[in-house]
From TrEMBL:
<keyword id="KW-0949">S-adenosyl-L-methionine</keyword>
<dbReference type="InterPro" id="IPR005636">
    <property type="entry name" value="DTW"/>
</dbReference>
<dbReference type="GO" id="GO:0008033">
    <property type="term" value="P:tRNA processing"/>
</dbReference>
<feature type="domain" description="DTW">
    <location>
        <begin position="149"/>
        <end position="405"/>
    </location>
</feature>
<dbReference type="InterPro" id="IPR039262">
    <property type="entry name" value="DTWD2/TAPT"/>
</dbReference>
<protein>
    <recommendedName>
        <fullName>tRNA-uridine aminocarboxypropyltransferase</fullName>
        <ecNumber>2.5.1.25</ecNumber>
    </recommendedName>
</protein>
<dbReference type="Pfam" id="PF03942">
    <property type="entry name" value="DTW"/>
</dbReference>
<keyword id="KW-0819">tRNA processing</keyword>
<keyword id="KW-0808">Transferase</keyword>
<dbReference type="GO" id="GO:0016432">
    <property type="term" value="F:tRNA-uridine aminocarboxypropyltransferase activity"/>
</dbReference>
Length: 418
């Protein structure tokens, strides 16, 4: 069978390639190049080619599976879902395409101007400061969710070509310990954030994400705190307005036997006794035995994950909630940690301030030095987190060098905490 040149030309001319297909082909052949500067709300990367505008697919809503893949087991926050839908509707109604780019995946272009006008009017119409915080946080998170689709790995939050997940070695955290990553929305999906490493290493049950200003997340966290009691909740924060205790002072009184104790499972079984009664009538007796489990206390440690300028408001919110629930201040722990490996990329304002992962490492190391805790393997757990910090540093450094950027941050960014 023969095919004429004219027929082949006509067939190729009629073939339309979607923007996503074009971008996918382009990126798969350049995996070692720098990532595109902008992304869209749909599952494709932005292209400036005007010939593809007609084939652009509309963005999709955020599913529960997509939301939880970023590092949480919570439902999708109501306000986040609403803002995502509003942004999708705005793009559908306008002639501007949703584009993201720059640090934090911020909105760009004509769509930014339209969305900015709309969200500022909505924010201004809110009278209550709590409502304004909820709206601010939800919008920050919604933009990051949409701007990171198809670009960042959902586990390590790095560009897919720099994914470090295969090199992270998981580790079990001591069963009575739980970290709470109280994260500012502007640090959500941030590539050089180190708080994410805790659930990469220990899992999302041992290291829980709680987003500042997201009502559902904060309610989940405080419900757990109320169940555990004030004496089992600590915040790792240098509180200058209230006395803080060292790790040794806070835990020296615990009995080692209680620390090693693991809860028993409820044991249930049925014992059937068969007997012949008169004319082969079968009598079945069912006996169930229950072994009551003893309640085991969980130690909850709050790690404030945000810039130092943002952390003050976050800590104040924690204190206000603690006073409302317990009528008392939130217990704080001070650490004697030194410099983190991440300081090479993100200098800290002073030596008593460090990144989130380094704070967790310091806590585990200092707890291990308390005699009652030295048989729990906390030093090995600290080492696992430290190894993940080294991996993150190597990935970020390699990316910066590949893109021709300096690996040292200027001191003007000295107020950042990762």
């Amino acid at each position: 069978m023969s095919i004429s040149v004219t027929s082949l030309t006509r067939a190729l001319t009629g073939l339309k390639c979607s923007k996503y297909t074009f971008q996918f082909l382009r990126t798969t052949t350049t995996t070692h190049m720098a990532a595109p500067p902008t992304t869209t709300a749909a599952l494709f990367l932005d292209s400036s080619s005007p010939s593809m505008e007609d084939s652009r697919r509309p963005p999709a809503s955020v599913s529960l599976e997509e939301w939880q893949a970023w590092g949480t087991d919570s439902p999708i926050p109501t306000h986040v879902a609403e803002i995502v839908e509003e942004m999708i509707d705005l793009e559908r109604e306008s002639d501007a395409q949703m584009k993201f780019g720059g640090l934090g995946g911020k909105l760009k272009g004509n769509f930014k101007a339209q969305e900015d006008k709309k969200h500022r009017a909505k924010y201004k119409a809110l009278d209550d400061s709590e409502q304004k915080l909820h709206f601010f946080s939800a919008r920050q998170i919604a933009c990051r969710l949409l701007g990171s689709r198809g670009y960042l790995c959902q586990k390590c939050w790095l560009p897919r070509e720099d994914c470090m997940c295969s090199r992270v070695v998981p580790c079990d955290l001591w069963h009575r310990m739980r970290f709470w990553l109280y994260m500012h929305p502007k640090d959500f999906l941030r590539q050089n954030n180190t708080g994410k490493l805790l659930w990469q290493v220990f899992g999302i049950n041992a290291s829980k994400l709680c987003l500042f200003g997201i009502a559902e997340h904060e309610e989940i966290m405080w419900k757990e705190f109320m169940h555990s009691g004030r004496n089992n909740v600590w915040c790792l924060y240098p509180n200058k307005n209230a006395p803080t205790k060292s790790v040794e002072d806070s835990f020296a009184g615990y009995i080692s036997n209680n620390l090693l104790y693991k809860p028993h499972q409820v044991i249930c079984f049925n014992l059937s006794v068969l007997a012949l009664h008169y004319i082969l009538d079968i009598i079945s007796i069912s006996i169930t035995l229950y072994v009551q489990t003893d309640a085991v206390e969980t130690f909850n440690f709050i790690l404030i994950d945000g810039t130092w300028s943002n952390s003050a408001a976050m800590f104040r919110r924690l204190k206000e909630r603690a006073d409302l629930i317990w009528g008392d201040d939130l217990p704080c722990i001070s650490l004697t940690t030194g410099a983190s490996a991440m300081h090479k990329l993100r200098p800290q304002p002073s030596w008593d301030r460090t990144c989130t992962a380094a704070a967790a490492i310091g806590l585990l190391d200092e707890l291990h030095l308390v005699s009652q805790f030295n048989s729990l393997g906390l030093d090995k757990q600290a080492e696992a987190v430290e190894n993940s910090v080294d991996l993150l540093l190597a990935s970020l450094t390699a990316r910066r060098l590949r893109m021709g950027r300096s690996i040292n941050r200027r001191q003007r960014h000295h107020n950042d905490i990762c």
